[in-house]
DNA sequence: AATCCGGGGCG
DNA sequence: CGCCCAGGATT
């Protein structure tokens, strides 16, 4: 397979974005000199759909409590879910602990550095595997998150926003922008993400502060509106299963003893929906249901708690 | 490719 | 109140 023709913009854009990053990079704890590969992975999992400002304090507390995969692997799952607190999508916390246990059992407690082994870890997908390779191990990889997608959509494709779904063609185009050299590729990954997070933002891009404004095809075209706007649909929230599940998880995180079914029912008005959500939470491993034993169990004696 | 999965803060 | 946030797993 032939490599795609290099974008004539790429070399200059990379140089200017990396130079900008050298000056403007945020001082985030998972970028500190004393960081560990495991700490980088923890940050990436926490950052999956949760903003940096909310992750930073949680990450500090988490790494102080469980600095290594072995520490997290040995923790009670209830403690892990409580420490996850309100970062959202608590299945990520379960996956992270499963990941820690896999690292201990299959990799001697040290995070692997090859793509396939990283992708095989629970909760690690294409983005996270690439990010860990670049940021923890300084290796070349195609790091394509929502920030890089937006930067490339604007600078290279001249579009306001990337398509709702990532395509193979987009991944291939992004790969063509990644330098061959390991260290240069890792710097481009970090710099392009940071530009998307701080300057080339989704809502109000600060083109006046952009190091590549004079090379941006979207800006040159007069900042045309989003071509996919008519297809975007906001995810509903009020009254959804996700809200109900969140209520239950919040209740169980606070509880110091198993919670009777009636007390769980008090946090959600729709009994049928709550029953469905509780079944799903139990199936997901986020909640444990304790049934009263005996031949004639009393359903009202059923209790719920966090696992482990 | 489409859905589901939390939660909060900002314009 | 819509929209966005360093996505992943499942179907």
TrEMBL record:
<dbReference type="GO" id="GO:0016798">
    <property type="term" value="F:hydrolase activity, acting on glycosyl bonds"/>
</dbReference>
<dbReference type="InterPro" id="IPR003265">
    <property type="entry name" value="HhH-GPD_domain"/>
</dbReference>
<keyword id="KW-0408">Iron</keyword>
<feature type="region of interest" description="Disordered">
    <location>
        <begin position="289"/>
        <end position="308"/>
    </location>
</feature>
<keyword id="KW-0326">Glycosidase</keyword>
<keyword id="KW-0227">DNA damage</keyword>
<dbReference type="InterPro" id="IPR011257">
    <property type="entry name" value="DNA_glycosylase"/>
</dbReference>
<protein>
    <recommendedName>
        <fullName>Adenine DNA glycosylase</fullName>
        <ecNumber>3.2.2.31</ecNumber>
    </recommendedName>
</protein>
<dbReference type="InterPro" id="IPR004036">
    <property type="entry name" value="Endonuclease-III-like_CS2"/>
</dbReference>
<keyword id="KW-0234">DNA repair</keyword>
<keyword id="KW-0411">Iron-sulfur</keyword>
<dbReference type="Pfam" id="PF00633">
    <property type="entry name" value="HHH"/>
</dbReference>
<keyword id="KW-0378">Hydrolase</keyword>
<dbReference type="InterPro" id="IPR044298">
    <property type="entry name" value="MIG/MutY"/>
</dbReference>
<keyword id="KW-0479">Metal-binding</keyword>
<dbReference type="InterPro" id="IPR023170">
    <property type="entry name" value="HhH_base_excis_C"/>
</dbReference>
<comment type="similarity">
    <text>Belongs to the Nth/MutY family.</text>
</comment>
<dbReference type="Pfam" id="PF10576">
    <property type="entry name" value="EndIII_4Fe-2S"/>
</dbReference>
<dbReference type="InterPro" id="IPR000445">
    <property type="entry name" value="HhH_motif"/>
</dbReference>
<dbReference type="InterPro" id="IPR003651">
    <property type="entry name" value="Endonuclease3_FeS-loop_motif"/>
</dbReference>
<dbReference type="Pfam" id="PF00730">
    <property type="entry name" value="HhH-GPD"/>
</dbReference>
<feature type="domain" description="HhH-GPD">
    <location>
        <begin position="46"/>
        <end position="198"/>
    </location>
</feature>
<keyword id="KW-0004">4Fe-4S</keyword>
């Amino acid at each position: 397979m032939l490599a795609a023709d290099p974008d004539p913009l790429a070399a200059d854009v990379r140089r200017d974005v990396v130079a900008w990053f050298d000056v403007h990079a945020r001082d985030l704890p998972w970028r500190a000199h004393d960081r560990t590969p495991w700490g980088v992975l923890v940050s990436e999992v926490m950052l999956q759909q949760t903003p940096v400002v909310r992750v930073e304090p949680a990450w500090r507390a988490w790494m102080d409590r469980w600095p290594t995969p072995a520490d997290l692997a040995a923790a009670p799952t209830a403690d892990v879910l409580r420490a996850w607190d309100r970062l959202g999508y608590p299945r990520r916390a379960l996956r992270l602990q499963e990941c820690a246990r896999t690292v201990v059992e299959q990799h001697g407690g040290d995070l692997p550095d090859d793509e396939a082994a990283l992708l095989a870890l629970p909760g690690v997908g294409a983005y996270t595997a690439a990010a860990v390779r670049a940021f923890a191990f300084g290796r070349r990889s195609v790091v394509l998150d929502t920030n890089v997608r937006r930067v490339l959509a604007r600078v290279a494709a001249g579009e306001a926003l990337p398509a709702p779904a990532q395509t193979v063609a987009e991944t291939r185009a992004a790969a063509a922008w990644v330098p061959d050299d390991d260290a240069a590729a890792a710097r481009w990954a970090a710099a392009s993400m940071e530009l998307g997070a701080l300057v080339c933002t989704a809502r109000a891009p600060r083109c006046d502060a952009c190091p590549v404004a004079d090379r941006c095809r979207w800006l040159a075209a007069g900042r045309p509106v989003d071509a996919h706007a008519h297809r975007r649909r906001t995810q509903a929230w009020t009254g959804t299963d996700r809200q109900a599940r969140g209520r239950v998880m919040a209740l169980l995180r606070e509880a110091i003893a198993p919670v009777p079914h009636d007390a769980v029912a008090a946090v959600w008005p729709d009994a049928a929906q709550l029953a469905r959500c509780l079944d799903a939470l139990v199936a997901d491993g986020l909640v444990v249901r304790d049934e009263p034993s005996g031949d004639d169990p009393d359903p009202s004696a059923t209790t719920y708690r966090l696992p482990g």
